[in-house]
Amino acid sequence: MERKILKWTTWCFGMLTVVMCTGLYFMPAFKEGFTAAIWEIPDFEFQEAPVEIEESVVLQDDKLNIELPEGIQGPEVQITNDYINHTVCVRFPKAIDNYSENYIVQGSSDHIANISYYKESGQGVLEIKLDKACEHFYSYKDGFLCMEFKDLHDIYEKIIVVDAGHGGSQPGAVKREVYEKHLNLDIVLKLKELLDEVDEKKLKVFYTRLDDSNPSLMDRAYMANQLDANLFISVHNNASGDGKFSSLNGTMVLYSPDENDDSSERLAQICLENVNASTGSKNLGLVKADNIYIVRTSEVPVALIEVGYMTNTTELDNLCTPEYQEKVAQGIYNAIMQAFEEGF
Ligand SMILES: [Zn+2]
To answer: 337: CA distance to ligand 1 center in Å?
Structure first.
């Protein structure tokens, strides 16, 4: 079996080339091919391993073998996967000098865009940039960390992003000392209980927040886009235009209108019907909402559910009860399942 050893000095040369070609970096058409070339295309000089590797360590072409620095055992290594930014970090507990010159990283992967090494807070960090959101698998063998990366969509049948609107310093509507951000989160946490019961192989759920934090609108949409989610569902509650209590009540769902793609509208319709059916709320219809940032910028089917009016006394009372929140969560859950049945 041919061993292709990509020496780190070669990478350094590659990276230098990247820097020199910064102009190309900003041209999207070139970016993908160029960064991929660093890893996949054997234009660079491959060399035999400077040390003999046990045959058992040499794995298939689709794996990456990372030599552990001297004195470091597998369990001491920390691996983190930032799915959203397509980055896996391997942290050694010591900041190793000249890791790239003294240790081996070998193998290949369809998904590696590039690899870099840096020192941070007394640790040595090998940063692996992937071309998409991937799950990582790893094992330790004979002084090597063996890693494999698989497209999330090859592992999970469906991937969705669920967003509880507002959070942190952004309360959303506030009526009778009830904060919209809390209602939204309460509903999402109840929805999570239902979604947690689904086999993980069938469904992987990412939440923009599960506490009183406030991710930016940009980050929320970015999350759905970076994960190439099958669905993006955002949970909000409504208030009348002038903020005054009124008889106005019911559920509406916002969507992104697109002449060529009605998936957002269809998803919104499914959400509306199911939340209405589960809660008995009034059907206030669908609303085109390209004026809403996360709706406009979502590149995946999106529905923003305005569950009910906090400016309606009865509806606000309902929204504050766990029983009603459970009905809302059940309605959204049913909508998600129906959407999958319809091929989302
Ligand atoms: Zn809101």
So the answer is: 24
Residue 165 CA to ligand 1 centre (angstroms): 5
CA of residue 240 to ligand 1 center, whole Å: 12
In tens, the pLDDT along 136-157 reads: 999 998 899 999 999 999 999 9
Domain span holding position 120:
5-153
C-alpha 16 to ligand 1 mean position (Å): 47
Mean pLDDT of the 194-206 span: 96
Last residue of a domain, one of 153, 182, 211: 153
> pTM above 0.90?
no
Give the end of a domain, one of 123, 153, 183: 153
Distance from chain centroid for Cα 194: 20
For ligand 1, the distance from its centroid to the CA atom of residue 217, given in whole angstroms, is 12
Distance between Cα 237 and ligand 1 center (Å): 5
